[in-house]
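input
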Amino acid sequence: MQITPSKLLEKCEETLNQLQSEQREKYYLSLIENCKCLEIPPTNARVGFVADSLTQVSKFLAMSI
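output
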C-alpha cells in the first residue's frame, strides 16, 4: 500500500494521540517493537527521527505535524 504525504500525516496524528492517552506506555512499547521490523518502500512518504523516550517521541511527532 502506497503511503502518501496526507496518509503519513494522518498516521503521525493518530500515533501522537495514542502517545498522549492514558495508555501511552503501552502504545510507546508497541511503537518500539513495530519499528524494529518495519520496512518502508522507497516510494512511500516517510518521516524519521531517533528518540530515547516517550517524551521525545511525542515532541518530534508534534513537530512533524
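quick obs: Residues 5-19 form the longest helix (15 residues).
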